[in-house]
Amino acid sequence: MTAILPVIQIVGYADSGKTTLLCALVRHLTTLGMTVATLKHHGHPHADNTSEGVASLDLPDKDTSLHLAAGAVGTGASSAALSAVWTPGELSLEQLAMRLPPADLILAEGFKHAPYPKWVLLREPRDVALLDELANVFGVSACFPFTHPSQPVVNRDEIERIAALAIAARQA
Fold it and tell me: Which structural domains are found in the chain, ordered by start?
C-alpha cells in the first residue's frame, strides 16, 4: 500500500448489525456533505454461489445494493470466489478501494485483519473475544451491558457520535 486510504472498518460477526450501521453512517455522513464509498467482504464463499456456479455479490436487498441505496458514491465486494470488479480471486481491501470513485471516506464492512481503524459490533458476550484478534480498534457497540477500559462504547443507534469518532479516527 503506497497511499493511506481514508478507510474506516465496521467489523463484527454475522448478524451483528454491520450493514445496518454502515448504511446509517453513509446516510448521516452524506448529509454533512461528505462523499462516502463502501466495500464489503464476503467471508463465506460457499454462500455466494448460485446454482449456475456464478458468484452473486450484488443482488437486490443485499449488502452492496443497500450501501448504494443509502447514498454511497460507489461500492465494491470481494469473496474467495469473485470480486465485484469481476476479476478472478479475492481482492484485498486496498485493491478494491483503488477502483472506487474518489471519496472523502471509504466505509469497509468486514476485512477484519486489514490495518485500518475499526468500529467493532458485539452481538453477544462471547463476541468480546473478537477484540483480542483486532488491531486499530477505535470504538465498540454492544447489544448487552459492556464497558471497555480504553475504548468508547457507544450505542449503535447513536449514529452522530459514531460518525464523529470515525471522522476523528480517519484523521488520526
Answer: 10-45+55-171 (3.40.50.300)
